Amino acid sequence: MSLDSNTHVGIAGAGTMGAGIAQVFLGAGFPVTLHDTSPRQLERAVAGIRDGLAKWENRKQIESAAAVLARLTPAHDLMALQGCAWIVEAIPERRAVKQEFFVALGVLAAPETILASNTSSISITSLGAYSGRPERTVGMHFFNPPTVMRLVEVVAGLRTDPQVVEATKQLCERLGKVPIVAKDRPGFVSNRVLMPMINEAIWVLEEGVANAEDVDQVMKLGMNHPMGPLELADFIGLDVCLSILDVLHEETGDPKFRPCPLLKKHVEAGWLGRKTGRGFFKYEP
Length: 285
Known about the structure:
The protein is an alpha/beta fold. The chain contains eleven helices and eight strands. Strand 4, helix 4 and strand 5 (114-117) form a beta-alpha-beta unit. Helix 1 crosses helix 2 (39-58), helix 7 packs across helix 9 (229-236) and helix 7 (190-206) packs across helix 10 (238-252). The longest helix is centred in the N-terminal third of the chain and has 20 residues, at 39-58.
């Protein structure tokens, strides 16, 4: 499982996370195929990557944004990922959608291809089973924004080959990231700890204990957090937070993970946070 600059990487999903992950791989010297079924989303992702690389060039982090961008291949057809040695899935955080996608990856990818998921809560063991190649399926959970955040949770499914886990750790280090290995448990480490805090902050808001600004101020000034839990929820996306809490609640049966009704109402209203201009706070377009 040697990794070199010729290792072709596929990224499935050109949303915020997928585009950011693609930029990280490009910056580390890898050729990347970025797939999305939406032409508009793919165009937006390529434009964002171009802007991000230009900033890196201005900061002297890379020599030529144009040269790095030349290693990117946008693709609407899933079969474009067929020749990739490493595929990172970064599609929406919905269990059924991801499971169906891993069935497709198991059919099209070469036997030696490593299938990684950027899931923040869904079982890697399950995704590996759906792919038909559980030994070569691993979790590779980046954090938002991937171009800035150094942590990557490497998650080993029950049947993931230890050599695949080790290769994933080495790849993360090649990307300039810090890999932390977690067992395949609901929410892994990050969201097992983070989501109950966010959910409790929403409960505090719903119960009228304090307003949104003051809830966040308590955590920023009292606990030295750089961002309050409600602002962080808006940044992550309230729909994503709800999906993660639903998985945690369903898989553990623990009532502490039951999503606050106010969170559900915001998602129903389409107030998803920064990406829609309104969540627990309002944002400029």
